[in-house]
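agent> Task received from the user: take the single chain below, predict its 3D structure, and emit C-alpha cells. No templates, no multimer pairing.
agent> Plan: (1) validate residues, (2) run structure prediction, (3) serialize to C-alpha cells, (4) report one or two observations.
agent> Step 1 OK, no nonstandard residues flagged.
tool_call: predict_structure(input=
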Amino acid sequence: MPDRSDGHARWIIDWLERDVGGKVVRIERQARWRPAWWVDVERDGVLLPLYVRGERVDSPSAFPLRHEMRFQSVLQEHGIPVPAVYGWSEEPRAYVMARVEGRDSFEGVPDDERRRAMDDYIDILVRLHALDVAPFVDADIVRAGAGEDPGSVGLRHFEETAYRKLKKRPDPFQEFVLGWLSRHRPDSRGRESAIVWDAGQLLHSDGRITALLDLEFGHIGDPMQDLGGMWVRSPFVALGDLAPLMRRYEERSGTPVDLQAVHYHYILWALSNQLEFHSVLADPVPGTDYMLNLHWCIETNLMALEGIATVVGAELAEVEEPEPVVSAYGPAHLHLTRSLERQDLGAGAQRYHNRMSVRLARHLQRIDEIGAAVVAADLDDTADLVGRRPRSWADGERELENFVLADEGRHDAELVRLFHRRLHRARMLNGPAGSWITRHRDVPQPSL
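)
tool_result: status=success, residues=448
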C-alpha cells in the first residue's frame, strides 16, 4: 500500500491514477529541499517507476515549472537523454517523468569511469547545442528578443523574476556583481542554441550518462553558458579536470571555446544562488532549508568574487577568524543545539527536515559566539570606504549598497577585497569552526 502520511500523497495518487493510468503502489517524498516524490505505478501488469517534480516552495526560478517541462519534452523528442515526460498537474503545479537509474555524483567513482562519463556528457552537450532552435521556439521556450544578446536573456529573466520583483532588503554584494556583469558583458558573436545553463546536473552509470537532470534553467542562449555552468557545478559533484573537457568540446563541435565568455558566464552562474535565495534568506517561509541556501550563497558568491578578482587584478588576503566570546545566552544556545542533536531524527524526508533545525541552531550558537565581532568588522570596512561609520548593521547595508550603485566601477578592486572579507566572515558564522558548512572550496578558474 502507498504511504499516505505525506499530505500531498492523496492528490498525487488521484492525479497519476487518472492521467497516467494504473494503480499507485508506492509513493515516497524525496529527502530534499524542494517538493518531489518517487512513485511506483502498476499498469497492465508492469511496474512503472516515476518521479513527480513539484513547484518550489520558497524561491522562484528564472522560468516557470511548465517552461521546464516543455524544454525537457523537446529534448526528449530530439534524442537527448532526459527522463520521459508523462504529464502535468495544474493544481498543485507539478509534472511527472520517468525515474531513470544512475548516480548524481562521482563520489567514490574510479577516475577512468568518471572520465568516460564526462566525455559522454560533453558529447551530449555538443548534440544538444547543434539542435535546430525552431522546435524550442515553437514550444515557447525563452529566447533573446530582437537586438538582445543570446547570452544575456537568461540573466534578464532571472534578475527580474527572482530578485527585483521580490527584493526585501539592501544587497550590496549582489548589486556589485550585477553592475560588474553589466559593464563587462561579452558579445556572443552569433552563437545561439538550446542550453541547460545549470550544467553538470546528470545521472550516470558504468561510464555513461543515463539522463540530464534538473532542466529548470533551460532556454535558448549562448552555448558558452553551459561550459561556464560546469565550472560552477564541478566543486560540488567532482566532475574532474574540466580543461580537457573544454578541449573535447572544441574537437567534437568544431566550435572554438570562447574562454573569455566562459569565464564571464562562470561568474554570472556563480551568482545564481544569491539571485534565487535573496528573498527567502531575508524572509524565510515554511519549508525553507535556510542553512543550505545560506551555505550555497556564501560559497558561490565567493566563487564569483574570486573570478572577478582575477579580472581586476585584486590580491585577496587571508581573513582572520574572530575569537569566540562567552555570553550570558551561550548556555541556552548550547542546550538547544544539544537537544536537537539528541532527538530521534527519523528517516527519509523527516530526517532531512529535522536536520534543517539542527543546522540552524548551530548557526545561531555561532552567531552568539562571534556575531558581534563580525558585524563590527563589517561596519569598520564600510566606514573605511564611505568615510563614516554606520550606526547599525542595517544602516551599513544601505550605505554600502548606495555606494556600490553610484560607483560604476571606479573602486572595483577595493570592493572586491571588502566583499571578500565580508563573505569569509559570513562563512565563519555558518556553524562550528571547522565543520563542513564553514569550509570554502579552492576552485580553479576556467581554462583550456
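agent> Step 4: summary for the user.
Confidence is low (pLDDT under 50) at residues 1-5.
agent> Done.
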